């Protein structure tokens, strides 16, 4: 399972960025949006999931520094709980504790996360590069 998480969450995005970078460099423009998670910033029951999401945040910043001089923006979104099949199978106590932190008291929809991705991919300012945009509705552990 660890190898699959590493391949899907970390290796695939890195290889995809490497694959599209030459064409974007030739055009002197492009936008890449990666998918991180709040799991990058707080404890997660699956250590490899959290580790890959933290790595994506780092990789996003690294690629932004490499590609930015070529007119290419590389950013990421870091969602909190999203109403997906995965959230439905999470331990109920964990799901409840996450949703207690959410300001609106409900998980985001996939469409809401897609709106943030679309904005980064099409309308965000050019100077927004290397940013990890939290789309988490306040889902951070609070004292």
Please specify the SSE layout and strand pairing.
Blueprint: H1 2-27, E1 30-35, H2 47-67, E2 72-79, H3 85-89, H4 92-101, H5 110-122, E3 132-135
Parallel strand pairs: 1-2, 2-3
Brief overview, please?
The chain is an alpha/beta fold and 143 residues long. It has 5 helices and 3 strands, in the order H-E-H-E-H-H-H-E.
Overview of the molecule:
It is a single chain. The chain has 143 residues and is an alpha/beta fold. The protein has a single domain, classed as Rossmann fold (3-Layer(aba) Sandwich), CATH 3.40.50. 52% of the residues lie in helices and 13% in strands. It contains 5 helices and 3 strands. It has helices at residues 2-27, 47-67, 85-89, 92-101, 110-122; strands at residues 30-35, 72-79, 132-135. A 3-stranded parallel β-sheet has the order 1-2-3, with helices on both faces. Helix 1 (2-27) packs parallel to helix 2.
Radius of gyration: 16 Å
Low-confidence stretches: none
Alpha plus pi helix count: 5
CATH architecture: 3-Layer(aba) Sandwich
Number of strands: 3
């Amino acid at each position: 399972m660890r190898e699959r998480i590493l391949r899907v969450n970390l290796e695939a995005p890195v290889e995809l960025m490497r694959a599209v970078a030459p064409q974007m460099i030739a055009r002197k423009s492009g936008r890449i949006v990666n998918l991180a998670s709040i799991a990058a910033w707080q404890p997660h029951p699956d250590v490899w999931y959290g580790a890959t999401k933290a790595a994506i945040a780092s990789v996003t910043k690294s690629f932004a520094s490499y590609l930015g001089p070529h007119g290419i923006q590389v950013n990421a979104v870091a969602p909190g709980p999203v109403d997906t099949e995965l959230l439905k199978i999470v331990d109920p106590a964990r799901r409840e504790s996450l949703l207690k932190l959410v300001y609106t008291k409900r998980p985001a929809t996939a469409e809401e996360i897609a709106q943030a991705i679309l904005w980064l991919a099409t309308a965000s300012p050019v100077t927004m590069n290397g940013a990890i945009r939290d789309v988490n509705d306040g889902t951070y552990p609070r004292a």
